Amino acid sequence: MNDARGAGQALINKLLDTCLLESGTVSCTVKMHDAVRDMALWINRHEYNKVDGFLARDSIIRREDREHIKRIHLWDNDLEEDARFNPDVILSCSSNRTLLLISVRGLRPPILQGIASGSMKSTLRVLDLSRSDTRGELPAEVGLMAELRFLDLSSTGITSLPKELGNLVKLRQLILRYTLVLEQIPQEAIAGLRSLQVLDMSGSVYDWEADPRGEDGGRQLELGDLEAGLPRLEELHIQLGTPRALERFLNSDKLCSRTRGLSLKRRHRSQNEGPPLYGEGGSLFWRVFSRMGGSLKTLELHGDDAHPWEGGLRISLDQLPLLEDLGVFSFRSERMPEVVLVGSNFTPRSSSSIVRLSEFTMFNCDGLKMLKLVGAFPCLQEIYLGNCSTMEELALDEGVAAGIAEEGTQDDAGLLDRYCPMLRKILNTRGAFLCFREAANRLVHGGRGQIINVTSSVVGSLRPGYAAYTASKAAVEAMTKILAKELRGMQITANSVAPGPVATDMFFAGKSEEDVRRSVNEGIEYLESMNTLHGIIPRPEHYA
Questions:
Q1: Residues 368 and 449 in one domain
Q2: What is the number of other CB atoms lying within 10 angstroms of the CB of residue 481?
Q3: Is residue 299's pLDDT more than 70?
Q4: Is residue 250 part of a domain?
Q5: Where do the Disease resistance R13L4/SHOC-2-like LRR domain residues begin and end (predicted)?
Q6: CA 246 to chain centre
Q7: Are 65 and 121 contained in the same domain?
Q8: Does residue 239 lie in a domain region?
């Protein structure tokens, strides 16, 4: 699996180098060069007898040409309103192998049943329904797609999986990320998938400690079934919400060694009852590192409000050699004054194991005073901080600073460049932080002045899809408030301006006209309160 991903990434990099692909408007995405896209669509429309056809959003396909269609991609469409892509068009492509219905509306049960039991059932290998409006129980007919290798149901409203899903003996990847209402998974639906290599349940609310008897009296999926029933499992992403589930998980050598992504978040039903999520004195917390540290690439740690963490939180990344993304959320306690990340234990002249952490996020951690980096972080690219209103300092430890000072520099930015050479963003605002510091120094010497920073109204609207951006802007607002306090009495003010929706590439990226209208309406109260630019979406120059 890793080899295949590596080959795919190498191919993408090669296409980027030759300018056939370009960087997308959102981080970690790519897009076709306009000329390449136009040529591909022209060939797709006129050369069906020479190439495998691709049915895209802006294609109109004659019925006699549909037998050439091998791939269908619809994104952000409404099947009930767009006549070009009514169900008959999709279902009549009998040779289709790939069906991507991403963010598609109007996917009613009869359509899904037709896809699963119709002419494509013996050819379809990839089915992606992520972010579509699929709701309720997945139709039992899904078990008829005998050739299916990849099924993505991420961010859908499915509440249960059918037992017949277990008939997909060739299925290799099942993606159930952020299935926020998925409550029923029969044992037979998963335990029989003997070819399954990847099971991704990141952010899923499925309760591994619920009543093992489902609503129909059948047995529900348990952690033990993942160990016993999936012999080819290579990669597992999972969310656990009770100390009992976590302890059971840690007792399985197979599950610990196969887990690449782990989220620990107490379930709502047990918020105010039972033992601490991380065990007495954090015992289970430290066992996660010792038992799973060698396999984890993504780790999310959520606070337990019923049992606040006491003392500093120190995470040694040498115990997590493969970890790339680390998130710390909702550790709200005045008894946890600092978070310490310990990186590679070496100086620039020495060698040691390299810490692979590339992104660190900390959100909603009121009570925290300091984030401290100890050692080197050669792969760290981004730090996101948000809603940490008591945060006062982001610090390198004194030992590192002293070692660097001996080499001739005492500049904070220089320390970051040396020990975090790939760091591009702090709070999405490394530049803002450095500008704050420089502006404050100059204005203090000048005797008076104003510092104004631009943030965003998304901090108040909490719009889905803007998590990292919102967290970064919230962090800038927190810095502004702290700076205002630090400059009190010096005739220097510090404030931030939070515009509503602005017509930028990022704002329009991935949005339909309906999405744009909805986003504007969410900010209408803000616009009215500012008494400015009614009825239009402002452009950047309006604020320049």
A1: no
A2: 14
A3: yes
A4: no
A5: 123-202
A6: 22
A7: yes
A8: no
